[in-house]
Structure formats: structure tokens, C-alpha cells
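Here comes my example:
=====
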Amino acid sequence: MSGLEPMPTDWDRALVLMAHPDDAEYGAAAAVAEWTGQGKQVAYVLATSGEAGIAGLPPAESGPLREAEQRAACAAVGVDNLVFLDYPDGRLEQTLDLRRDLARAIRRYRPDGVVTLNHRETWAPGRWNSQDHQVFGRSVLNAVADAANEWIFPELAEAGLPPHAGVRWVAVVSSQPTHAVPVGRESVEKALASLMAHERYLQALSPRPVREQALEQVRMVTGPDEAGARVAFELFLT
């Protein structure tokens, strides 16, 4: 797999933590489809509803639409556990409240691994990463430690959510990958359907057909060769 190490396979539960609808579909959906196809349990928690993401469509209309598209996107890859945290799209800040809410989600779901966003300033030379992604990715990495620590956010334990130190790895959708998940043709097709579920969003991004946009992105993530398709992540061990 182009020099990348294989991702761990000896786990049962993963939690996908993303800032917006479509974030998982742009980088991780084929891996999620592969995992759910193997019987692993995967849940999604999104910080925002992506309500500021469609030009010309007011947030009050865009938010519910994008939530509905995300539910369809999750269904396409075998995920039926989806939660929105209702933070404001485009205005995420690196706060204790966000860390607490993410730690709460981790303690509630008690995953073996976490999948999240690139936390760096850039995706590649000349390609800036959004502030929401930077803030959220860093907050997730911190929240994994918070979820395991009995003295940080003790109010969570008081509410019936004891510490969870069982997160073994955090897989980051990153331009500096270290590990990869091989994915089959069916998983690639499910990933394509998952991204295409964001129909209105993709229509606002480009006049190109939705399927064409989605296929280009999925092939960029998984590689052009179906026989060697994979999804790459930067793995942080906890």
C-alpha cells in the first residue's frame, strides 16, 4: 500500500468525529463502508449542521437540508448512529465547552478508535485548511485524553459517564498519511453514494454533475486502481 502501514483490525467500535456534514464523505467514507461491512460498529458525531455551507441558501434552510443529506450519507455506508452538537458553522473555537462535548461523546460511545479531521494549517503546499477543521481536529485529539482522565470534566462522571481510556488510536484524514485501510469495490461504490447524498451542497459548489464531482473525489481518496483501492490515514496512538 505504497509504503503505508496497515491500519489496526482488532477492534469493534469506532467513533467518527467531524466538523461538518460531508467531511467524512470527502475522506473516510470508503473505510467506514469497509468496516461496517465487516460487522464493526461505527457512529458519527458532527459539531455543526453545515448551515453556512451553501451560497444563496439561508442557514435556517440550509441546516435542516444538510442534516438530512448527512443522514442519507450515513445510511449509504451502513451507519445509523448520527448526532449533531449544534455548534455554529464556520465559527468553531478551541474552547473547553467543545472539548467537554467531544469527551462526553467519547465516554458515551466508548470506542476503540476515533476518526477525525486534519488539524494542521494546510492540506498541502498552497492549500489552506479551514479554521473549523484546525480547531476541531485539535479539540478531538485533546478530548480523547480528556475522556480518559477522571479529573478533567468530573461532571461527566457525575452524570453517569465514567472515564473511557479505551481509545487505542486516532485516525486523521491527513495529507501526511502513515497507515491505510484496503477497501473493496463495494465499499468504494458505497462511498460514492454517500458523497452523492450531499446533492444540494455539491450542486452549489460546481455546475458539474454531482456524480462526476463525487467520483473524482472518491477516486482521489481511494486511488484509480480498483484492485488496490485503499483509504489512507495519519495514525496517532494513544
Observations:
- The mean pLDDT is 96.
